[in-house]
Structures are given as structure tokens and as C-alpha cells.
Here is the input.
Amino acid sequence: MKDNKDYYLTTAITYTSGKPHIGNTYEIILADAIARFKRQEGYNVYFQTGTDEHGQKIELKANEAGIPPKQFVDEKAAEVKRIWDLMDTTYDRFMRTTDEYHIKQVQKIFKKLYDQGDIYLGHYEGKYCTACESFFTETQLVDGKCPDCGGLVHDAKEEAYFFKLSKYQDRLMKHIEEHPEFIQPASRKNEMINNFLKPGLQDLCVSRTSFKWSIPVDFDPKHVVYVWIDALTNYITGLGYDVDGNHGELYKKYWPADLHLIGKDIVRFHTIYWPIMLMALDIPLPKQVFGHPWLLQGESKMSKSKGNVIYADDLVDIFGVDAVRYYVLNEIPYDNDGSITWDLLVERINSDLANVLGNLVNRTIAMANKYFDGIINNPNVSEAVDDELKEAALQMPKKVIAKMDEFKSADALDAIFTLLRRTNKYIDETTPWILAKDESKKDRLATVIYNLIESIRFAAVALIPFIPSTANKILDQINTDKRDLLELNQFGLYQPGTKVVEKPEMLFARLDPKEIQKKVEALQEVKPEVKKEEAKELITIDDFSKIELVVGTVEECKKHPKADKLLVSKINIGTETKQIVSGIADKYKPEEFVGKKVIVVANLKPAKLRGVESQGMILAGDNDDMLEVISVENLPNGTRIH
Here is the structure.
């Protein structure tokens, strides 16, 4: 049984298909802030991250690069680790799914589940998305494409082993109901219940025969273990879990995990597949899975094909590590996507880090040196305004703790910067430069400077999880060893008689937007590689003539009752009115879509999308998050498109 002061935190393991961008990197920064904060609270933290290194996509990319898959993932894993280290993250274990111990345990887990009847051999026939490495039925597709990534799918049929998810469905639902904190935020929990558990779980494909770069099923070597059992079990194998019961000390100490921190796009795998695997293995479930939102570039998801990817190391080269950490931790809301642009970065760094924080520290230390040769004393000549500052300082840690217990880093930072702004206001209220002109006010001036230094100490200690290098630099400059969170329970612990540094180092310089723009343009001179679509097989005019394209008017439109991304439209195509389900709800509101003249594939075989019949397809163009329905203006309903 783990001790109450032990805390096990994991990130998702990063897929080694390419270099992680700042949106991917946000997760490790947030996890590090949580880990550092928990250590401040006195927890024995074990923080695990790592890389997911098997799968068909990696095998294909390695073949394209002309190198063995192991060499390919070694290079990509090293790059991920370099970025994580660059961002000053304090993980305890960098897990790789090509680690020999992990491979052996995955094989043993697979065999155990097979022997007890939870895994069985069958055949799979369906639509396969290579990008997501997932099979889907026809009804699960959205406009004929992958419901997860929107990419192309192709027909696939192969022998496969399946895991009996349905066997544990009721038990999982009961666990979720009895542990409301298990899936957070609540919106993610509702999505899992309504979209997956209530409609009923299908058994999960857990082996493949069409590629080789994965862990072999040792009792049936033509099969390799499919991604889920391989990737998800890293959270226990990384601690030394052993199927035979000879567990390592870390597993005994730290499991069950206190927090799996993951992106919102993989919540299903971590809150349905993973807990059911654990139930089948008779292992306690993790206490909480938190699906964080995305960091968008402007209003769009980052993608290489759009050329809008921003990398963490480029940001660090221009702004520095702590500025980048501060921005992403401050700008992403609790359960909504955040945004990053070069202009917003400059604005936030100038307003918060340079003006509010950096200027406060610099001018306070400068005044201490100017008026008292850098020696801080507290004659305690107080006024009412001092009490207001002290109260603000004492309330701040309580707010930070409350917000970080909910993983609301932006709100925690807001509480700290509220104190910093109050401290800046205190300077204006007490006017030290005027007090310095009156010898009789010298003790009052010394008290003011002491209160400023102590308030800065409060803020710096609280900032350690978020901008650790800067926070410790501030504490070094005011020369204090009072750096524990528990030492923020009393205002006045800064030791009188302490001497601050003579020449404080500038923490954050104000940035010139024009100079930053030049640096950004220099970065972008090397054009991003644009991903090419796979070439389609040439067709004849006879093939094309089989498709009946006609003009239709949208007469009714509403949201799909079970899928947020789908719209259900009634479209008049002249001879009849067709009901068509389309994955365009992110771009079009139902009321805006009514009245549009669109082009319809009228002779498409009807299919059910999330339980609602679709009798055709609307033509649209899309490129990642850019989507536009093709429309016409003057042609009457029923007009054939040639």
C-alpha cells in the first residue's frame, strides 16, 4: 500500500514519428509544474515520461528514411529527450517501449490475458487508419474518414487477437460513477460515458500481422502486439511491475498512479482501454486521468502540412526557457484550448515578466542598495497599507495550493501575479523616494523596503514550479534560504540584516516586436516540409460517370444528437429530399447552413453515422482545420454536375 505522501505522475509517452512541437511540449511542462509543486508540498514524487516506439507508421517512416526501425526510434527518442531536458523538466524516468524489460513484460501480460480468456483469436475486417493505427466500422467513420483524425482509411482484413472490453464494461461504469474524480475535466467524463460506454463497447483488436515493427506475440510469432497493450502498460512496467508477482520496489511504493496527464485526444484509451486492462490483471486503477486541452497556433491546430508548427527550441532561442514555460502555463485554460502566436508571446513577456515581475525585483533591490547599502532591516514602523500587503501575501499561497490541486496552472499564476501587482502598487503608495529625503522617516523607509523584499520572497517561492530558474535567481539576489512553501505561512521570515546583491541581474528585458519579427522571419526562411498526399489510382471517364453529383438546397439542419462534430441536414435535390450527415459542425452552425446551395453525391450507398442514417455526401475541401463546403449560386436543385 503506497504511503499518503508518495505521488506518482505520468505524461503520455510521445510517439517517435517526428520532432515534438510546442503543443506536444506543453504536456511535459505542465507535468513538471505539478511535480515541482507536489515536491514543495512535501510529497515523494516519482515523475515518468517517455516515448512510444512501435507501430506500422514508424515502420513505414523508417523504410522511407532507409534505416532500420530501431535506429529511427533511437534518433527520435533522443530528440524528444533533448526537448524535455531543454525545458528544464525534472522527470525521474524516461521510459522507452523498446526497453527490454518492458518488452518481456508486455509478452507476459498478453499471454496472461489470453490464458484467462480475456484475449481470443479472431478475424478483423474493417476500415483502417494508418495514422491512428485504428480499425473502424463503416458506421464509425465521419464522411467516410477516420473519426479521430479525419484522415483517409482503407479496407483491411486480417487475423487478429481481440481483448474482451465488453466483459468489464459494467464494472468500469460503476467505478466511474463511484469515483467522480477519476476522469477530469467533467466534460471529458461525460464524453466517455455518452459516446462510448452507453452505446456499448466493442472488443478491441490487440494484435496485427501486416507489419513487424512491434513486440512479437511469443506463442504465435506471426502476430505482433498492437499498440494499446504495448503503450499503455508502460505506466506499470516503468515501475518494475512483474506479471509473476516479483514486483520492483518502485511499483510497490508508487502504484496506483495519482495522475495520468494526457491530451484530450487520447482520453478514451486511458479511461476505457487502460482501466479495463488493469481490471483484467487485477491491478488497482489510477486515481485520476486528466485530459488537458490543446495549444493552438492562433486558432488552428498545429500541423506540418499547414506550415504553422512552432517548435519549443526555436521559442527558447528567442525568448528563453522560463518565458516559454510561463506563457504556455498561463495561456491554456483548464478545459478549453489555448493559443500561441509570436505577437502574443511578446505582449505577455513584456507586460507580465518584464514589467510586473522583473521591474519590481530590479527597482526594489536598487532602492535597498541606494538607501541602505543593500542591508535589509525591519524597524517595524508600520502603517495600515502594510497590513493590506501582508494580507495579500498570506492569502496568495492558499489560492495557489487550491488551484494547483485542480491542475489550474493559469489560475495559480494569476494569484501570484495579483500579489506582484499589489506589491508594485505598494511602492506607489509608500513613495520610498520621498521618504528617503526625510531623515526622520528612515525607519519607515527601512520597513517599506523590508516589506517589499519579503513580498518578493513570497512570490518567488510560489513561482518555483512554473519558472524555476528565474524564481531561484530572484531568491539568490535577495540572498534568502527561506524557499519552502511551508515558509509562506508567516510574513516576516526574511532574516533582518541580510545583504542583497549589489547589481541585480535583469530577469526579463523588454522585447522590441520588430526585432522579434526579424528573428521569426529568419527562422521561417527554411520552408517547412509540406506533406504530400498519396497519389490516387488513375480512373477512367466511365469510373467518374458512376458518381451522380447534383445541386441541392439545405432546407433543414441540426446538430447530431450523439456527436458534436456532425450536422444532420435535409437537402432538396429536386426529385427528392435527402438526409445527409456531415462532419462540418466545427465550421458551420446549423442556422448558417440552412439555405446554402451545395453539391451532393446523390447515389452514395446509405450508411448510419452514430446511429443516424446518411443518404449521401456533401462535397467539401479540407486541409487539416481548414474546411469549406463547395457551393453554387444560381443552378436549380437537381442540376447534374459533370
